[in-house]
Write a structure and sequence with these properties.
The protein is of the alpha/beta class. The protein is built from 18 helices and 15 strands.
């Protein structure tokens, strides 16, 4: 650190609700401190905030339960014996087995609406009026004329209405009702979505990296860059951390970035596997992960998958959630694909021409310069060294985050920029669920690239979070 330079003090903020019995704390203004520490809200507040999104599913479950209860009350779940005596106009239907006008032996006088009960002790097969509920449900209502003519409301045939075989015939009628076609037998290997299939066949690639030797009595640090970055983004950070007493620092190129190999798969599971193989190849059994943006999500994935490999975790300006609403990388990729640089231009002329072509889409000059670090000359032609096709195909995976249920038990620091939207209060519940020992700090005046916007404050925050010997 230069002589005479004093760093701003760190101010820690309590939970949003403040201590019990105290008035709620106000939201701090970013002019009050250069480095702000923000702790997570209490668990009760997070639970209350998380229940709001469950109301639609609860209401939907209630409506489904009501439908099931209505189906059960309709009596269609099991045949309940019910003795029906169909009547129309006060006259019973004809029975071909007895003369018209003769009353059946042992029958009771008709009750209301033509219904009567079977005589006690009479066998079910001998009750000509006995029909199961399903047969009654199949029988449509209609007038006398429609029954005689066999029209749409004619109802079931006589064999179904009368006789000792009424119940078996009714069951046969129900079996003949149209049914949905049976689904085809499931294959032994079901087809998987593209992302799931890619995860299942992902293999590790050998990552390009640079080592900066540090103290041997301290754990090594592994720095992971963000989307469209490379290990050079953290070179100055690595040298400064070692000079101020940290352990060995590794800066790594992610797959499809920098000098690392290209691969059609670009998921966080695959990138985490790359880092695991790198640590195994170098004989590192425990490290401190520092990841920015995409690298932060890779670091979180590795910590949640293999917590024994990660002593501490620092995620720079990214949380374990979706970043699609604040991302414009899809437009950046399209603009980069449209860049045309003629052969034979000098490096400076080629970069200037590419900068002019990116300007209509990428408005910020600093961001254009960051993207142009990927424009390299290969055999006289200028190409992008990042794998734009793989990144474009997996952009949804990069903007989202895998689903995990078991939290990471170690210490974690989420270090964001006060002028960046990538870590907001919406991320606090998920951060606390997956990283219960997490701290959240914001650096005043920093944007998304925190280590570039506020270098000294970033170095101080990282050194303060490292384990003290």
């Amino acid at each position: 650190m230069p002589q005479g330079h004093s760093l701003p003090a760190v101010q820690s903020l309590g939970p949003p609700g403040g201590p019990r019995g105290a008035s709620p704390a106000r939201e701090p203004r970013w002019g009050e401190a250069a480095l702000l520490g923000r702790s997570l809200p209490p668990a009760a507040t997070l639970q209350r905030a998380g229940t709001k999104g469950q109301e639609p599913s609860q209401e939907r479950g209630a409506s489904l339960g009501g439908s099931a209860a209505g189906a059960a009350s309709a009596g269609l779940c099991r045949p309940v014996p019910l003795c029906l005596r169909a009547a129309e106009g006060g006259r019973a239907l004809r029975n071909p087995r007895r003369p018209q006008g003769a009353a059946p032996a042992g029958s009771l006088p008709p009750g209301p609406k033509g219904r009567s009960r079977c005589p006690r002790g009479q066998r079910r097969e001998r009750c000509r009026h006995h029909l199961p509920t399903r047969a009654a449900a199949v029988r449509p209502r209609g007038g006398a004329r429609s029954r005689r003519r066999g029209g749409a409301g004619a109802g079931p045939p006589r064999a179904l209405r009368h006789g000792p075989r009424a119940a078996p015939v009714a069951a046969m009628m129900l079996r003949r009702l149209p049914r949905a076609p049976a689904p085809p037998p499931l294959p032994r290997s079901l087809p998987q979505p593209a992302a799931a299939a890619a995860r299942s066949v992902a293999t590790a690639v050998p990552l390009a990296h640079v080592e900066v030797e540090g103290r041997r009595d301290r754990p090594p640090l592994v720095l992971l860059h963000g989307l469209f970055g490379s290990h050079s983004n953290f070179q100055t950070v690595a040298k400064t951390l070692v000079r101020r007493g940290s352990g060995k620092v590794l800066t790594v190129d992610a797959r499809n970035h920098g000098s690392s190999p290209h691969s059609p798969v670009m998921t966080y599971e695959a990138m985490s596997l790359d880092v695991q193989h790198l640590l195994s190849r170098l004989g590192i059994t425990k490290c401190i992960l520092v990841g920015h943006s995409m690298g932060g999500k890779t670091a979180m994935t590795l910590a949640l998958q293999q917590p024994d490999l990660v002593e501490r975790l620092i995620s720079v300006d990214i949380g374990p959630g979706s970043t699609a609403p604040v991302s414009e990388f899809s437009a950046y990729i399209s603009a980069m694909k449209e860049v045309k640089v003629p052969v034979g231009l000098s490096r400076s002329a080629a970069r200037q021409l590419a900068d002019d072509q990116l300007q209509p889409v990428v408005k910020l000059p600093q961001l254009r310069q960051f993207l142009l670090t990927n424009l390299v000359e290969v055999e006289g032609r200028y190409v992008w060294r990042v794998n734009l096709e793989a990144i474009s195909r997996h952009l949804a995976d990069i903007m989202n985050f895998p689903i995990f249920h078991k939290p990471y038990p170690g210490p974690a620091l989420f270090l964001g920029g006060s002028d960046s939207p990538y870590i907001s209060s919406r991320d606090y519940p998920e951060i606390q669920r997956l990283f219960p020992k997490a701290e959240i700090q914001y650096i005043k005046g920093a944007g998304h690239i925190v280590h570039q916007d506020k270098f000294e404050e970033f170095i101080t925050a990282v050194l303060n979070f490292l384990p003290q010997l």
